[in-house]
Amino acid sequence: MNSIRFYLALWISKLAVIVINTVAKGRGTNLPGQVALRIDPLFVKHMKGVDPAKTVFVTGTNGKSTTVNMLHHVFTSNGYTVAANLDGANMLTGVATALIKDSTLSGRIRSEYVIMETDERYLRFIRKQIPARQLIITNIQKDQTQRNGEPGVISRKIAEAMGPDLTVFVNQDEPRSYALGDNAGRAVSYAVKENSKSFHKEQDFFSVTIPCEKCHEPIVFHAHNIENVGPFVCPACGYGAEKPADYLVDAVDYEGHSFTVKGRTYPFNFSTPYFLYCYISVFAAASEMGMTEDELWHGFETFTDLRGRLATKHIAGKTLNYIKMKQENPETIQSSLNLLAEDPEDKIFMFGLDETLDYYPPFTNTLALFDVDFRPVLNSGLSRSVCMSRAIGRAAAVRMLYDGFDPDKMTVLPASYEEDVAAVLEPLPDKPVYLVEEIPYYKKPKK
Amino acid sequence: MSSNYKIFNEIRKNTSGHDAVLSNVSELGFDKDTRALHILWMYPDALNVFGGRGDLMALMRISCLMGLPTEMRRLDSLADDIPLDWADIIYFASGDLTCMADILKVQKTRQEDYRRYAESGRMIIAVSSSGAVLADETIMSDGTSVKGLGLLRMKMTEREKIHGDDLWFTTREGIEVTGNQIQLLDVELEEGQEPWGTIVYGRGNNDNGSEGAETGNVIYTACVGPALVRNPWLAADLLRRAAKAAGVSGEFSLDDEDIRQEILSAEEAREFIRNKMQH
């Protein structure tokens, strides 16, 4: 009975893949899996040929997609076959869909390796069906409050999925995820050494840090390689790196596009520190699974991420530097602000937000605004700021007032429609323009 | 704008690191011996979700705008002595549930002092999950429970699923408040415990039309946003109440012109919520 249900689920879902590919190529990253799991709730578990020892899950708040894409590329560019959910469909249905696409009509996976991005909250359900032996945790940060609430909830959910059969790759520079190493049979750490783009935060009375995972006292970062990620210690209980990381990026040359690990230099096709953590987690996982240094070098040399967060656009005779961020994740907002603050010229700063809709109903989510510091932008030179949003543009403007922005140099727009943006920019003097905005919203059509 | 408009940013700019006390007393032109309102910010790093530090910034900024002499101290470590004798407002911003047991362990050692503090009419505010500090008991999803200070007769229970949405309510004092609610704990008020407000939109305590809890000047609310930034009229009211209880005398008013952007922001939020209520 079970096998009949499985084959029925497999064949109907394969048919769904064909239909979706015919009518809307590139879509259908979840639907076939939904169909299969409706018929056989243990469909993923029943797939044949999935070797847990050759399966890697990637979870965490930020960097999952980039890490999965890089790991997939490193393997495939060296001739290995991999089943993966590269499009970010990271719940059980997305994993099921990726496996359906990779399987034969008898439900056997064609690929040797399985690499899957897994949602933090659903990892425990996915791992019940595929007991992957490798898990990369990128970081655990505040994000998607409607789903996750607070970071502690995310940690607890991930911990529930872990056990003695698991090797976990943990970020030694990120206090919350590093602590999760205790829940696995084996923890392999990765880190990035302080480098030319590391920074120290300006401290004032209202500065806060994150609490220690062990004793809840304040964590001290020796430096930040990216926002809230860097070598740290808890002065109260000593929590922090007890030994050098198992895998460490120990020399970064941003201009020369290279970094070194264990004495060997590797190509680095990016200029932002964020990617270094993707590289070193991939390095760690792939090495532990038997990949050679030459294979890693080859994979890194040819890896490029086409979905970058930076773009330029010409509008009202001005060049607009567009920096995409996740507006519920303070770390990506802050990284975006820090990036534009590197430009010492007087600038026009545009900040676009929208209501939040992870689950219905949408809401006027202003929670992350006080987790970030806008003063680096102000102090770097600012001639005008423009807040854009239907529901929380004014709230963003209020936040900037708290950091000392001049109310006479502020404009609030009800949305980021191109014609409205152009009308604001047109009369302004010719200055660099930076737009920091939630990833999907720019260019939405005016109703 | 009033002449006090820039004071908050000026005093903030003059701080470095975690100064012992942030004060607006001299900037407002008061003598240094003037009795100021004392605000104690509890565990800023541990209780630091949902932008909670914004509430503390709001209390100081609105104090400046109102001309209310105010001093603020941080209590950074669980090992630090809690200066209950010094404080007029004790503020527990929203914190991660995982911190609550350790925080409560420390507070419980001062349970009697907290009771006397509350009975004296001085103010304690706890926001969102930090309400566990003031509650009788909080039950976690794994079945464990922690006893609170019991200053508010309420029981909190961790929810299976997080509730996230807007929140709009009117306090018992008649103040209209809009903000966000990220509810990890349902709240059950025990018999005789007054809520803080009545819901216009949102879940509040337990989707039963009530929001928060209030006994004297001890207040719990689920409202984040941060609520005091989004509702400076609420911050002003709380400051006036606390000042009165502390014997800090004066006429402390808030000029609408100084909070013009906040007034427009609240209207923007109410309009958004009204649209949801209609559909």
Descriptive keywords:
A: 447 residues; Protein-Tyrosine Phosphatase, Chain A; 2 domains; 9-stranded mixed beta sheet; globular; B: 279 residues; alpha/beta; Rossmann fold; 7-stranded mixed beta sheet; 6-stranded mixed beta sheet; 13 strands
Describe this structure in words.
The complex is a heterodimer of chains A (447) and B (279). Chain A has 447 residues and is an alpha/beta fold. Chain A folds into two domains: 254 residues, Mur-like, catalytic domain (UDP-N-acetylmuramoyl-L-alanine:D-glutamate ligase), CATH 3.40.1190; 129 residues, Alpha-Beta Complex (Protein-Tyrosine Phosphatase, Chain A). Helix content of chain A is 32%, strand content 19%. In chain A, helix 1 packs antiparallel against helix 2, helix 2 crosses helix 5 and helix 4 crosses helix 10. The longest helix of chain A has 22 residues. Chain A starts with a helix and ends in a 9-residue tail after the last strand. The C terminus of chain A is likely disordered. Chain B is of the alpha/beta class. Chain B has a single domain, classed as Class I glutamine amidotransferase (GATase) domain (Rossmann fold, 3-Layer(aba) Sandwich). Chain B has seven helices and 13 strands. In chain B, the strands form two sheets. A seven-stranded mixed beta sheet of chain B has the order 1-3-2-4-5-13-12. In chain B, strands 6, 7, 8, 9, 10 and 11 form a six-stranded mixed beta sheet that branches. In chain B, helix 2 links the parallel strand 2 and strand 3. In chain B, helix 2 packs across helix 6. The longest helix of chain B is centred in the C-terminal third of the chain and has 19 residues. The mean pLDDT of chain B is 95. The interface between A and B is large, with 57 and 60 residues.
